[in-house]
Design goal:
By secondary structure, the chain is of the alpha+beta class. 24% of the residues lie in helices and 34% in strands.
Amino acid sequence: MNTLTSNVTAAITDTFPINGTDFIEFYVGNAKQTALFYQHCFCFELIAYKGPETGSRDVASYVLRQGKITFVITGAFDPNHEISKHVALHGDGVKVLALWVDDAEQAYNLAIERGAESAFEPLKLEDDHGSVRLAAIKTYGETIHTLVERSNYKGAFMPGYSPKTSLYKVKSLGLKYVDHCVGNVELGDMNRWVKFYEDVMGFKLLVTFDDKDISTDYTALMSKVVSNGNGFIKFPINEPAAGKKKSQIEEYLDFYKSAGVQHIAIATDDIIHTVETLRNNGIEFLYVPDNYYDTVLERVGEIKEDLEDLKRQNILVDRDEEGYLLQIFTKPIQDRPTVFFEIIERHGARSFGKGNFKALFEAIEREQELRGTL
């Protein structure tokens, strides 16, 4: 099977309108400490809080923001709470990929009619700042899509949260928005979930990669990328492929104990500054050997950046017919080798760095070997 790219930016009828990513919620073991990690390392600002001081007796949530990116970090107090059980099984990870819509109830009803399974029915939250309507549907693993309608709300985040500012002084890294979110699913489930997004949410297939595109001598995976009508939401979905050794997808599934969100790609306009600051703040990245840069310009052509600056920060380059991109991947950000981040800067390119797949896989395999899971 060859790589297939579809032009989803052509004029189409968007049968499930989505305005963008509203927030991403992580379930974690210690929300306060994790929120401080994102403030210090990724330079997010604390904007709102929910906990005992606001009347929440069972959970604490910290709302962090940078650019158009909103993270909600949530932990529970009772070991029998569903959040505590989620963390005990999966470790710290993404529970909610929330989508901003104009009418949450209408979107929910449409999704249910098309075959989605309900996570919770439409509800309305209110306070002095207005109202927010929410509903949610299930997707792969225990991940859910919360549909958020907030046009009638003027508060910091949503009812139940109080405004709160960072005591820790942060300076923005220039992170702008969520470029894409990648899900790992079990062998044989990739096409099932692609069909879910096509049939239920009106997404279109953007690109397909098979095990010839994404492989090394030892491991391989298959991936399909779906995108919503306006192109603001992109979900690559990965499944394992046969290989001589255990692939990164199989390792993820072993440690996460189910399908789930593998990584979040975040856009920046100055990747060199962003990555340099992240390194100084303690974030570790996958390493690609220096000889990668010996021939990279022969492959991608002219770029604006100084190659030595990219080499110094170990940033990768790729090009498609519409431009080029710069990208780099962190190591996992928690003890289990599950969730990580991609930092990406696009210069016209709409692709996902196919030319870097082999180098990245080899970098991941080196980490797997150190962990004894290759």
